[in-house]
Amino acid sequence: MTSPRTLLEKVWDTHVVHRLPTGPELLYVDLHLVHEVTSPQAFEGLRIAGRGVRRPELTVATVDHNVPTGDRALPVDDPISARQLEALSRNARDFRIELFDLQSPHQGIVHVIGPELGLTHPGMVIVCGDSHTSTHGAFGALAFGIGTSEVEHVLATQCVVATRPRTMEVRFDGAPAPGVSAKDMILALIGNIGTAGATGHVIEYTGDAITQLSMESRMTVCNMSIEAGARAGMIAPDETTFGYLAGRPRAPQGAAWDRALRRW
Q1: How far is residue 68's CA from residue 139's CA, in Å, rounded to a whole number?
Q2: Is the overall model pTM greater than 0.90, yes or no?
Q3: Which residues pair with 98 in a beta bridge?
Q4: Residue 20 — very low, low, confident or very high, per pLDDT cuts 50/70/90?
């Protein structure tokens, strides 16, 4: 008889490439999101070592942190920002990675374009060189931020070395009172357990108040899990999840959608 498993365990166990008796494990990565701030050194490391990107089709780059809020047709004033934007453009071209640059209609916040385009799916392992990658956990994915040296490792191998975290269930019962938002809910949690209260854990959010949230609100909750000290946040996928993803440009279509729904 199979013992019950948490959402984290289900996703983690299906992605283990190599498991040691103790210590970290090697996980396969389904989607690697790249932006201009934490990637230049990683790409340079590949060049020095004479390596390519293992799965460029599973790597998506977007300009994000240094994007001007004014007229994008004008040159970028800050020289460091301009250099980082130019470096990502060059690296994406050299390593055959899809890039959403300033001219792309799909450019956006690196944590948001994955869901908007339907790149983010339940059951995935998703990484990015940014702590708030946990946003994607709203879709039932295991998503977490990695450092620059790890970015290079994922680019080269499509795998990440990670130590299995513990799981913390956070249950929100009932229904939010009028005027209470998803941000109020996660801030209440942080106020209760502290900014280090979930250190070493992935938070799995459950309860009626969570299932009543929109996908955008669930993304807010999972995004701010980091402010509670967690490695990531996760919410089990349901009809709200599937309804959000249906018809998105990069979501499965037709028979592939039906197969994906059964798997999810």
Answers
A1: 29
A2: yes
A3: 60
A4: confident
